Amino acid sequence: MKIVGIIAEFNPMHNGHQYLIKKAKELTGADYAICLMSGNFTQAGNIALTNKFNRATTAIKNGFDAVIELPTIYATASAEFFAYGAVNILNSLNCIDYLCFGSETGDVDILINIAHKLIKNEENIWESITISLKEGISFAKAREYAISKFLTQSEVEISSSSNNILAIEYIKSLIKLNSNITPIAIKREENTEYLSATKLREKLKNNEDVSKYILDKNIGTNLEFNDNMYKIIKYKLVSSSKEYLQEINGITEGIENKLIQEINNSDTFDNFIQNVKSKRYQLSKIKRILISILLDITKADFQTLNTNENQYAHIIAILPKSKNELLSILNNSSSIPIITSLNDKKIDTLDSTIASSLKLDIRATNIYSAISNQDINKDYTNKL
Questions:
Q1: What is the pLDDT of residues 87-141, one digit of tens each?
Q2: Burial of 292 per CB tally in 10 Å (0-12, 13-18, 19+)
Q3: What letter does residue 322 receive in the DSSP assignment?
Q4: What whole-number distance in Å separates Cα of residue 245 and Cα of residue 242?
Q5: What band does 221 get if pLDDT is binned at 50, 70 and 90?
Q6: Dihedral through CA 86, CA 89, CA 90, CA 94, nearest 10?
Q7: Which residues contact 31 (CB under 8 A, 6 or more apart)?
Q8: What is the pTM of this model?
């Protein structure tokens, strides 16, 4: 029995994702495919176009046997923590044979070689990045300069494209965990048939028809979601003390002052993040900070929840014909809790770190529901 894992956001799920799962099954011969999917807020700091349960259902209809929610604390983190948290969960299931991911290169051996070099020189790389950031250089440039000391020019170029960055982080995580999971890189295709999720979101924002590219035909633009979210963030920024904001995860070097200043000079969410953006604080980082403000994720929360103890598999969708056998495999092999339904009594029986993380997931779902005018407490009512 072979099982392939895929880490994804599906914001939105599109033809490229369908190609990825089809290719993953072809290359691995897997009997089952499990997706570890971000919830209602994503790694780039975006609010999802549609809720996690709808996206999970779409995934089940398009080739996956089960969808596990990636805990919010990892889903809204930077690439390194996002990847490690996700890979750690898949590894702890003790039944995942392969991890498949899209990449610009598609050559897994090159990515593995780069990952080993980056791990070997990790301390020196971060030291170089820190120095460059203090000099006002952007994170992307600081990272590129730091890794160029240990990689060839070709490897630096490979390491600087968005999907390769995540692919390398996945592989680094597998190496650090001494995992038996085999990484499989699948070359990303972008042509008239496939468009990236980023380009699709841009087209949706411009009211362009993308129906031929996406698999969820009921998806919206989420412009209203951003407006509603902006109102809450604005309220929190103007009503919170600087001392409180300084405790929010991601807030450093007085960025809270810039946030407070620009919230009064901006009439829309897009205006606001553009006004706050700088070399040091790029859009994705700013948006992740704003998600932390929205969800009340503090530095202490991140330190507490971003640990090996915070591992669980909350299944939010499963293919009916796969349900019995797959749940049996997971329950028999996993070293972490397998959760198929939620209620307060069940949460209170879990390890305190896991319980806190699940409560954050539920809070994120309810805030998303309020922003998108949907029913709250869907985590409690969702049935497999």
A1: 999 999 999 999 999 999 999 999 999 999 999 999 999 999 999 988 888 888 9
A2: buried
A3: G
A4: 5
A5: low
A6: 160
A7: 1, 2, 3
A8: 0.96
